[in-house]
Amino acid sequence: MDEKLIQRLESAVARLEALSCGRGGSPDIGGDAASLDPSIVAYEDLIAQFVGRVSSAAEKIGGQVLDVTKIIEQAFSTQKELLIKVKQSQKPDMAGLVEFLKPLNEVIVKATKMTEGRRSDFFNHLKAATDSLTALAWIAYSGKDCGMSMPIAHVEESWQMAEFYSNKILVEYRNKDANHVEWAKALKELYIPGLRDYVKSHYPLGPVWSASGKTVVFAPTKASASGAPAPPPPPPASLFSSEPPKPSSSQPKEGMAAVFEEINSGKPVTSGLRKVTADMKTKNRADRSGVVSAGEKERGVSSSSFSKAGPPKLELQMGRKWVVENQIGKKNLVIDDCDAKQSVYIFGCKDSVLQIQGKVNNITIDKCSKMGVVFKDVVAACEIVNCNGIEVQCQGSAPTISVDNTGGCQLYLSKDSLGASITTAKSSEINVLVPGAGQDDDWGEHALPHQYVHVYKDGQFVTTPVSHSGG
């Protein structure tokens, strides 16, 4: 028998003996009894089996991958302690729930900080781990009106965001280092099926609080402890003045109000204007000429090109078209409230990631660079036009994918979208990645040709793709 299993059995027996001797018939569930609950024991098995596999792979890699994996271990251990407290506590109000979940939130924030600052060589590992930890927020589900998906769906949706970076790891290290591939696969199995199946078996409708347990009390302020409401935040420093406040009528007016006040004052309107002398006129100034310098030309070009970019947008227009424009450096863009009659238009985005959660009619990606798009299902087509360095992942079905005037495009297809018709024109460096035959098999990468040979034969031209063979 496995040594770890024997140790766990011995520990369980010891806790049962201590519980039978020490519990004096109290109706509340004590700490020992809660830790022996089948759901808690199953969670310990989840940690031992799935988290342990991720940790084993991380130890072989070391560095930041090992550091972020230790945070994953800490997050799952923290959630285990929270699940034990759920067995012993009554359902709190919103303020109490926020305080109750604070230890888990602090661990997730710690992981998020690892992805900030200068981009690491293991950025994809850090993002996959950090985004996956949001799956643990299923414990905050308190009902259909809480603004969250059901616990099982929440775990699946959270992993979909992390899977974008996990797939990058699999592609990058497929033929370089098996330890990184093992780490990415183990991380996926931790959530799908690991955590998902656990939640499905024990908490499909969210955590079950104790009806007779203790009340969760959040840390009160001095005022709230005495029954009075908490004071508002302190005003800005400018309000801490020794002078008494002046009435609004004595405050100087600004903008158009000041203009009308000056007009109505009865004073000559032009009394405050300066007289322009002869030497101040442009035609008499030596420092002004009709010749435009090269520097001024460059500044004019740069300023006009900047003004064309426009403000960032992520909005639904006329109820039919989602517009995502000019997003730069945004890694967590999400469209979740969409339907099959709506289209998505992505324009001018750079170094960003957009996730489309739901079926839409059409997706167009135009003039974007270093952009990642993850979508589930599309009714008509996904179009990529005038782009550079694009990564698109289809998690459902897509009948048509077209790539036009694009350099550098990675397409990740799901098993449901393998029958998609892919059309390319004036594009290069297009790679299509398809899942392996088995769950543990590596992704297969296929390069689409962009060079062709045209040969005149039998009265017509015959076109074939260029094939390169090694000598």
UniProtKB/TrEMBL annotation:
Pfam families for the chain: CAP_C, CAP_N, CAP_N-CM
Cross-referenced SMART domains: CARP
InterPro entries: Adenylate_cyclase-assoc_CAP, Adenylate_cyclase-assoc_CAP_C, Adenylate_cyclase-assoc_CAP_N, C-CAP_CF_C-like, CAP/MinC_C, CAP_C_sf, CAP_CS_N, CAP_N
Ranges annotated as biased composition (Low complexity): 238-254
Region span, Disordered: 223-254, 281-311
Span of domain C-CAP/cofactor C-like: 311-448
Family designation: Belongs to the CAP family.
Record-given protein name: Adenylyl cyclase-associated protein
Gene name linked to the record: LOC140035100
